[in-house]
Amino acid sequence: MNNDESEFFPLVYVACAKSYAKGEDWGTWVDPVQSLEEVQAQIQDLLDCSSVKNADDYFIKEYRGFYGLPLGETPDLEELVEIADKIWIYGASWAAYLLDNGESSTEEDYLDRYLGESPIEDKKRYEAYKKYKCINIENKLYIFIKKLPTCGSSVLSMLIQL
What is d(CA 119, CA 106) in angstroms, rounded to the nearest whole number? Predict the structure, then answer.
């Protein structure tokens, strides 16, 4: 299982367990920065399309953008989605905070420790999150690159916003 810290956008490679047991790598990359229901639907689609009949079990073979967090092959999906969402918002510092604080980790405590106590700065970060669903510049660039093929004449205005 790889856990590549160079990737800033959380992704997981989900594989069909029955296919894997037969020597086939039947899997797909899933974006966990979405609702739990959407992640579950993508995993179910993977299992439904498996080369093995009645595929009903999966595991996570690889993580990207989780900065070394030891989540294992069968993490709780709800927890995985929550962690991915926080990494998407706060970046590597959220992962470092989780590694340091374990199960006692809370977003409120994280904000106090890592973002200081400036209500104005916290408000700006929150507004940026609501507007762009991101905080750090890497995530803004990812959104920009993702929209690039379809944005047409608005490319210049998007560059100015960055």
Answer: 18
- pTM for this predicted structure: 0.67
Please report, for the chain, the start and end positions of each structural domain, with discontinuous segments joined by +. Answer: 3-117
Cα–Cα dist 151/63, whole Å: 30
Q: What is the distance between the alpha carbons of residues 115 and 129, in angstroms, rounded to a whole number?
A: 14
Note down pLDDT in tens along the chain; length 162 residues: 444 444 568 999 999 999 999 998 889 999 999 999 999 999 999 899 888 888 889 999 999 999 889 999 999 999 999 999 988 888 888 888 888 888 778 888 888 776 654 444 555 555 555 555 544 555 555 555 555 554 444 444 544 454
* Identity of the amino acid at 109: D
